[in-house]
Write a structure and sequence with these properties.
transmembrane; High-affinity branched-chain amino acid transport system permease protein LivH; transmembrane transporter activity; mainly alpha
């Protein structure tokens, strides 16, 4: 495996890690796979795009706007689509159906807003590639990798070292007991949605820069789901490991068998994990989760 392929794979895997981590945060607290996450990613990326076009702002303010928009929309989504289901403590199937419906609503809003067209972010970098020691690295890939690593490190520190993080872990483990211990359960769930939405905004901007913006961009959330399955549903560290592995595998497949076969092998790998090791690499117990 050449160093060039590894670098490209790590850059791709870092964005998948953002998607998978946002996915895992919600899975941890409410025990369901939030399939509206992809459409939220698209909606917040488009908000960042139109702000950048209207104001001429650089990359960092645009990322900040997208993350803020993603977090706020996720908060509203939690209240509208999931709050009553959480209070009634009903079957996870209702969460699943509600998340698909909410995702369809987000996607519909984007389609009505921008139409079926494709959009490109303004050029944020003076040079599109960086060359060193015979290697050629896309500037956007490098910035994407560095930004993703910083975001994920901050997230881990937040979860491990702060009171909010401890509350999040308590609610993830046992919501009822956490409530009896005085933890604001719904406030903590809202905090998880806020973080997840912000990560969706960050991932959406980088996907828009690297590829192109279109209403169905959120379909890439499937890659985050596959990464979560490989790493272990509900495990944030497992989601990151699974995402990096998926990025490396996809880059290898694109180089050696072509881009058309890469998605097929990705699904095969996920099916193998579900059949052979359903708990994923991190070994999370998924027996009572949907």
């Amino acid at each position: 495996m050449s160093l060039q392929i590894i670098i490209n794979g790590l850059a791709l895997g870092s964005v998948y890690a953002l998607i998978a981590t946002g996915f895992s945060l919600i899975f941890n607290v409410l025990k369901f796979s939030n399939f509206s996450h992809g459409a939220l990613m698209t909606l917040s990326a488009f908000i960042g795009y139109f702000v950048s076009v209207a104001t001429g702002w650089k990359l960092i303010p645009v990322i900040a706007v997208s993350m803020l928009a993603g977090g706020l929309i996720a908060l509203i989504g939690e209240f509208v689509a999931f709050r009553k289901i959480t209070i009634r403590n009903t079957s996870p199937v209702y969460f699943f159906v509600s998340s698909i419906t909410l995702g369809t609503l987000y996607e519909g809003i984007v389609t009505i807003w921008v139409g079926p067209n494709f959009y490109n972010f303004p050029r944020f970098f003076k040079s599109s590639v960086i060359r060193f020691s015979g290697l050629v690295v896309s500037t956007s890939d490098l910035i994407m990798f560095i930004s993703s690593v910083i975001a994920l490190v901050l997230l881990v520190l937040l979860i491990q070292k702060t009171r909010l993080g401890r509350a999040l872990r308590s609610v993830s483990f046992d919501r009822d007991t956490a409530g009896l211990m005085g933890i604001n359960v719904f406030g903590t769930i809202q905090f998880a949605f806020l973080l997840s939405g912000a990560l969706a905004g960050l991932a959406g901007v980088f996907l828009g820069i690297n590829y192109t913006l279109f209403p169905q961009l959120g379909n890439l959330v499937v890659k985050g789901f596959i990464a979560s399955v490989i790493g272990g549903l509900g495990s944030i560290s497992g989601a990151v490991i699974g995402a990096v592995l998926l990025g490396l595998i996809e880059t290898l497949l694109i180089n050696f068998v072509g881009s058309g076969y890469a998605p097929v092998f990705s699904f095969v790998i996920m099916l193998v994990f579900l059949l052979v090791r359903p708990q994923g690499i991190a070994g999370s117990n998924i027996q009572e989760k949907a």
